[in-house]
Design goal:
14 helices; two-stranded antiparallel ribbon; alpha/beta; about 375 residues
């Protein structure tokens, strides 16, 4: 009996090993189109942070290669993609929160919006943005990390195209292939929400990062999970318009959850001024031309007046600035390119004025003419 059990176990292990080797060969020779296990990028973007779920490894670097850019990212001693910053400061400083758009996806550090704002205003902008952050993670990062650094104002950001998903657990786990659904969430029916930490278990993470065969099976698992939660997806965000834009098409519960998170951030920021930027992507810019000012802007402006923050909607000025909206984006990626970061920085500096930035704002200089 022991010999039989051992033989069966050995046969199973041999089969798994052969499938793994075969899958590696097929992927390596591009016979099958499958992304390689995600191990190299997670040396920089860690997915197992005990508080945020995802965060940069401290004092790390990584070269991000895509079909249309190659950029080296570096992090400081606390894991922020920024230069080393002291916790104490004698002069004004601005803390910046956000996701991949504000971290500077695909652009070198001096080209991203926070660095451009620092150059325009003469005021240091401490960048704590993190790819795959949702609004709730911004709040938690502020409470547990950012608040320990002297600063006089805060800029946070909302990217509607994915932030409704990033704050909704049921919606996130219905998304096929989204490995950064493991994060803190507020769950329940607004306004009655409770904190929930969702973490990827060690075995799954190890297999996802190292096994080609597991990454063949993983989409099938995701598809099954997505099917189970499709009703939650449909209920969470209204799918209206072509292409859909979350500036215009969203469920009331999703917007209410966002309002609660922003109210919590305003409370944590205290007496400091807080500006919340609404960040457009291509579908939003196209919808603006037909539908004008978005209902999300109107809603958050009203909420901000009540809860203590100002709203800077970048959708109208960025839509009106160019004729071809594709000028703002990489040809292989939906993120902002350097030009979009430049235009956004100019608009933010103009909208917030010198008082927000410690009274030292200077005029912006355009390096590229408008279309």
């Amino acid at each position: 009996m022991v010999r039989l059990t051992f033989a069966v176990a050995a046969a199973c292990l041999a089969t798994v090993a052969m499938v793994e080797v075969g899958t590696r060969g097929l992927v390596g020779t591009e016979v099958i189109d499958l992304a390689r296990p995600h191990s190299d990028d997670e040396l920089y973007w860690r997915s197992d942070h005990p508080t945020f779920g995802v965060w940069h490894a401290p004092n790390a670097s990584w070269v991000h290669r895509s079909k249309c850019f190659k950029v080296k990212y570096t992090s400081n001693s606390v894991g922020a993609r920024d230069i080393e910053r002291s916790r104490r400061a004698a002069g004004p400083r601005v803390a910046v929160l956000g996701d991949s758009f504000f971290e500077g996806w695909g652009v070198v550090a001096h080209q991203r919006m926070s660095n451009r704002l620092e150059a325009i205003t003469g005021v240091p902008h401490l960048n704590f943005a993190m790819a795959h952050f949702g609004p709730y993670q911004q709040l938690i990062a502020y409470e547990t990390l950012v608040s320990d650094f002297d600063h006089d104002a805060v800029i946070a950001s909302i990217v509607p195209i994915n932030d409704f998903e990033d704050t909704d657990y049921d919606l996130a786990r219905s998304t096929v292939g989204y490995r950064f659904m493991y994060r803190p969430y507020l769950v329940g029916d607004p306004p009655h929400l409770e904190h929930l930490d969702v973490r990827e278990n060690t075995a799954r993470r190890w297999l996802r990062q190292r096994s080609y065969a597991f990454n063949v099976v993983l989409p099938l698992i995701d598809q099954r999970r997505a099917g189970r939660f499709e009703d939650a997806r449909a209920a969470s965000i209204a799918r209206v318009g072509d292409p859909p834009s979350r500036f215009y098409d969203y469920a009331d519960a999703a917007a209410l959850r966002l309002e609660i998170i922003l109210a919590g951030l305003a409370k944590a920021v205290g007496e400091r001024p807080l500006a919340v930027l609404l960040v457009p992507t291509r579908p939003d810019l196209l919808r603006f031309r037909s539908d004008g000012v978005s209902p999300l802007e109107r809603r958050l402006v009203e909420a901000g007046a009540r809860d203590g923050y100002s709203v800077v909607d970048l959708l109208p000025p960025m839509a009106e600035r160019v004729t071809e909206v594709d000028r703002y984006f990489f040809p292989c990626d939906y993120h902002w390119n350097s030009f979009a970061n430049e235009v956004a920085a100019e608009q933010v500096a103009e909208a917030l004025g010198g008082t927000f930035f410690g009274g030292r704002a200077r005029g912006a200089v355009r390096s590229e003419p408008a279309a």
